[in-house]
Amino acid sequence: MVSGFQRRKGAEVDFSWSEEERQLKESIIRFARRELAESAIERDRMEHFDRDLWERCARFGIPGLPFPVLYGGQGLDIFSTVGAMEGLGYACRDNGLLFGLNAQMWSVQMPIHRFGTPDQKERFLRPLCEGTLVGAHAMTEPASGSDAFSLSTTAVREGDFYRLSGSKTFVSLAPVADLFVVFATVNRKAGFLGVTAFLLERDTAGLRVGNPISKLGLRSCPWAEVFLEDCLVPLENRLGDEGAGATLFNDSMEWERGCLLAGTVGAMERQLEDCVEYAKTRRQFNSPIIRFQSISNLLVGMRLRLETSRLLLHRMASEKASGKRCRELAAMAKLHISESWKQSSLEAIQIHGGYGYSVEFEVERDFRDAIGGTIYSGTSEIQMQIIADALLG
Ligand SMILES: Cc1cc2nc3c(=O)[nH]c(=O)nc-3n(C[C@H](O)[C@H](O)[C@H](O)COP(=O)(O)OP(=O)(O)OC[C@H]3O[C@@H](n4cnc5c(N)ncnc54)[C@H](O)[C@@H]3O)c2cc1C
Q1: CATH T-level assignment (fold) for domain 136-244
Q2: Taking Cα atoms as reference points, which of 53, 79, 49 lies closest to residue 66?
Q3: Which CATH superfamily is domain 248-392 in?
Q4: Alpha helices of the chain — where are they, by DSSP H?
Q5: Mean pLDDT score, 108-133
Q6: Range 311-338 average pLDDT
Q7: What amino acid positions are annotated as catalytic residues?
């Protein structure tokens, strides 16, 4: 695979795809059109998670893209993975399914890959790549959201076990998950230094998942509260060292912020194509509406947002592929892509007029889905804080 570093030609950065990467992206587009196209409207309306579609994605290799072949993955570098996920986002109109796959890849599989023991990788990473397990990430609590490390779920060591007590909320995929990455503190007074991560299997005694909670968008990816009532977790299910949970969380958030929205960049391309096509064919006042500058200017804004989002995404992937930390760049990518997707989705409704507002035509769903992107993995305000902190030095 070509690394980000090798992509540099002289002083310039070459963002073009290799033939191999282009073929992979095209094969994912064909797969998504063939296998994932049906009943996206229905799944959104019914808030239905379709495990069969999930398994089809896993058989195609999607959740395993950047993970080692040794543990059931495809062993791709991050640049190729991001390109493949763009292809998926372009062709799969079910943003909820796309979000669920990404949430698992970056906030469940990635920390196991980077911090897990060989035994944990064999027991959990392999089946997550293969689609036989679904994984969820449980950090947020009713009283701790943006200030994640002020969490109050406790983990008390008892011999070869930890006893976990507390509750988590807004846990994506919780209603269908088989495995949970749970964050708890072994010492509240130690602040972030007490935070520790654990792998909890769904049948752990004392673990209870609440009913799915209805939400505005990404409705085919259900979420719920998770209650931990004296859960005994064996030592071998601690992920990383005791007290290393904050490092692990920050690491996986950097991956998630940087990569999760690759699919969104693909979706923005699809959305723009749909809008251009509509504006060319919809006629008012004896003219295609694209001839009205108010409409074409909206399309220009969408085009610019797509291009700048893609550049930031590829720049971030290129840095990651060369092994660099990129906390600030990941925050910029997350902030810019999610806010761009929200704005373009709003304008797509305007371009489609009443048809855009109707749920029958799918245009409004992108807008509902896009709002979630400005909240999960840290809100836009938190991304701005990260970027401002970097400016302060
Ligand atoms: C679609 C979706 C999926 C999610 N999936 C998961 C999941 O799988 N697992 C999980 O653990 N969590 C998940 N979350 C929860 C998400 O991580 C939190 O909602 C997010 O971190 C914000 O926390 P909060 O909702 O408690 O809001 P709060 O932190 O209470 O924030 C409320 C408002 O105050 C602002 N604010 C807070 N602090 C600051 C500050 N320092 N400076 C400026 N403004 C600030 C926020 O930006 C926001 O506008 C998900 C959320 C969404 C929307």
Answers
A1: Butyryl-CoA Dehydrogenase, subunit A; domain 2 (2.40.110)
A2: 79
A3: Butyryl-CoA Dehydrogenase, subunit A, domain 3 (1.20.140.10)
A4: 19-35, 40-46, 51-60, 78-91, 95-104, 110-115, 118-120, 126-130, 245-259, 262-281, 293-321, 327-357, 363-373, 380-392
A5: 98
A6: 93
A7: 256
Atom of ligand 1 nearest to the CA of 379: 47
Residue of 379, 382, 383, 386 to mutate, ligand 1, most atoms within 8 A of C-beta? 379
Residue 308 has pLDDT above 60, yes or no: yes
CA of 374 to the centre of ligand 1 (A): 9
Distance in Å, CA 146 to ligand 1 centroid: 5
For residues 82-107, give the mean pLDDT. 97
As given in the structure block, the two tokens for residue 367 are: 């807008």
Residues pairing with 164 in the sheet: 155, 231
Give me ligand 1 centre to Cα 140, in Å: 8
Q: Tell me what percent of the residues of the chain surpass a pLDDT of 90.
A: 89
Mean pLDDT of the chain: 94
Kindly state if the Cβ of 218 falls inside 6 Å of ligand 1: yes
